[in-house]
Write a structure and sequence with these properties.
The complex is a heterodimer of chains A (about 325) and B (about 190).
Chain A lengths: L27 H28 L3 H27 L1 E3 L6 H14 L5 E5 L6 E4 L7 E5 H6 L2 H16 L2 H28 L9 H47 L2 H15 L4 H7 L27 H16 L3
Parallel strand pairs in A: 2-4
Antiparallel strand pairs in A: 1-2, 3-4
Chain B lengths: L1 H6 L15 H13 L2 E10 L5 H21 L2 E6 L5 E6 L3 H17 L6 E9 L8 E7 L4 E5 L1 E2 L3 E2 L1 H11 L22
Antiparallel strand pairs in B: 1-3, 1-4, 2-3, 4-5, 5-6, 7-8
Helix pairs in contact in B: 3-4
The chains are: A mainly alpha (about 325), B alpha+beta (about 190).
Chain lengths: ~325, ~190
């Protein structure tokens, strides 16, 4: 049915109606691991809120404060990240090549064009931010422009555009909400215990009870914080792999993304430490994380999967491309 | 399902919509009769080459099919790669129908091999006959949107927006014109004469 209108060419394609729509089979393993992580995060969230409601009377205030943070981060993420990286938006006249690359990738992927920005730093990196496709910004540093060839830069851009398509900023902001909430509870409970006149040191029964409740809340929150921290990091790594995969499929050349990764992570080690520290809070949305040399990241805490893992996935995709149809 | 795909980070490659392409033949007649805009007899398909043996096999087959079609119809063929890493198959033939057929040959061969998502756009060359006679412009077909838009490049990477909007008006309802102006992306260095 697809070729019904092409009278002149129909003959040669008869029998090929049931062709492959795409060459890449779905990666069910990655999807199910991500679903599992999200489920655990959600479960943790529900349990934590239930515990809070059970033992705290002023939980509403805490939720409001944390909700405010979430709201702010969610709606201003594009401007926050850009400001933190000192990126500035560029017009098509200022950066014609970069705009043309993004234009074409967006037409290939059928997505609205995000704003394009450049950050004037020698650290080779790129990031995407913004809560949805209409408010997205894709930013590259001058360092990455200098180090990568044009096709490699395009591969990096397609990785970032995949983050936008997957709405990773929204997903990660919401996922980390629990962590922010738990952290706030720990802090405010400790302050309340120390200065609030609740007096852990007093000896009457009522105050003993109050002290025990506060202690319980602190403990529960600390555990929740630790667990949610691990889970959001895990989720972040899965989403990086997803973006790698979608980006590589978009440009049809997985090895380009692999070579860009190798170049950037190789270069990362030679970057001055001060620059890196300033950039660390934003790591979750970066193309490759800025790790200080000699600082051994435990894989459990990393926002990005190890390089070998990413390269291995890209290799697999490349192999799928090699297969005859 | 789109929401779920985003949530699970498994966006699927956008598949091309090929049907609207055949409307170009009729639209060319409308443009000529209504606004004196004539086709230049050149068209091109632009796609992103993928790596690997699978794509090489598709290209090989495409070349064979195109050569055959071209000798049959008596048209000319040229393949060029641009500086952004996209490949252009340029067909020259005075007959609009032959042009569309050749363009569709590229589409269907790529799609058949599972490379449909690699298709970026196809362009049809036109010349203005109205207020700026001889000024070139292109009808660009966006595969993933299934829509057309006019693109009129000027010297120094500028666009003649007035002409583009005039073309849009002249097309009327003949072709699905891309409604979002933000998606009328510029295509500098189109390898057509």
């Amino acid at each position: 049915m697809k070729f019904a209108r092409s009278s002149a060419t129909r003959g040669s394609f008869r029998g090929d109606i049931l062709m492959a729509r795409t060459r890449f089979p779905a990666d069910h393993g990655l999807t199910s691991r991500m679903v599992g992580t999200m489920f655990l995060l959600g479960l943790l969230y529900v349990v934590f809120v239930a515990v809070l409601i059970a033992i705290l009377k002023s939980w509403l205030l805490i939720v409001l404060i944390a909700g405010g943070f979430l709201f702010f981060q969610y709606f201003f993420s594009d401007r926050l990240a850009l400001a933190a990286m000192r990126g500035h938006e560029v017009s098509p006249q200022q950066a014609p090549e970069l705009h043309q690359m993004v234009d074409r990738l967006c037409a290939l992927a059928d997505m609205p064009k995000p704003k394009v920005a450049i950050a004037d730093t020698d650290m080779p990196n790129a990031f995407a931010t913004g809560r949805n496709q209409q408010h997205a910004v894709v930013c590259v540093t001058t360092g990455i422009q200098r180090r990568l060839s044009a096709p490699e830069l395009e591969a990096v851009l397609s990785h970032e555009l995949s983050h936008v398509a997957h709405r990773d900023v929204a997903v990660m902001t919401i996922a980390s909400f629990l962590g922010i909430l738990a952290g706030l509870v720990v802090r405010s409970s400790i302050y309340a215990g120390a200065f609030g006149g609740g007096g852990w040191g007093r000896s009457n029964d009522r105050d003993n009870n109050a002290g025990a409740v506060i202690l319980l809340v602190v403990l529960a929150s600390a555990v929740v914080y630790a667990l949610s921290f691990l889970l959001t990091r895990l989720l972040s790594r899965y989403r990086e792999l997803s973006a790698d995969r979608a980006g590589a499929i978009l440009i049809g050349r997985p090895s380009l993304l692999a070579s860009a990764l190798v170049k950037i992570t190789g270069d990362m080690g030679r970057i001055p430490t001060r620059d890196l520290r300033a950039a660390e809070p934003l790591n979750a949305f970066f193309f490759a994380p800025a790790a200080a040399p000699g600082f051994s990241f435990s894989t459990l805490f990393a926002t990005h999967p190890p390089l070998e893992r990413r390269l291995e996935q890209l290799e697999r995709l490349e192999a799928q491309l090699g297969r005859p149809a | 399902m789109k929401f779920l795909d985003a949530l699970l980070g498994r966006s699927k490659p956008a598949q091309p919509k090929l049907d609207a392409l055949f409307g170009v033949t009729g639209a060319a007649i409308t443009l000529e009769s209504a606004a004196g805009m004539r086709p230049t007899g050149q068209a091109a398909v632009c796609f992103k080459p993928a790596s690997g043996q699978g794509f090489a096999a598709a290209s090989e087959e495409l070349k064979g099919l195109l050569d055959l079609a071209v000798t049959e119809a008596g048209s000319k063929l040229a393949v060029t790669d641009d500086r952004y890493g996209y490949r252009w198959v340029v067909v020259t033939d005075p007959d609009m129908e032959d042009l569309v057929t050749s363009v569709h040959l590229v589409n269907s061969t790529l799609e058949q091999h599972g490379f449909g998502p690699q298709l970026l756009c196809s362009v049809f060359g036109f010349r203005d006959g109205g207020s700026t006679p001889g000024q070139r412009f292109y009808l660009v077909y966006l595969y993933k949107r299934g829509s057309f838009y006019p693109f009129a490049p000027l010297e120094g990477e500028r666009r003649d927006n007035e002409l583009e909007l005039r073309v849009k008006a002249a097309l009327g309802g003949d072709l699905p014109v891309e409604a979002e102006l933000a998606r009328w992306f510029a295509l500098w260095g189109i390898p057509l004469d």
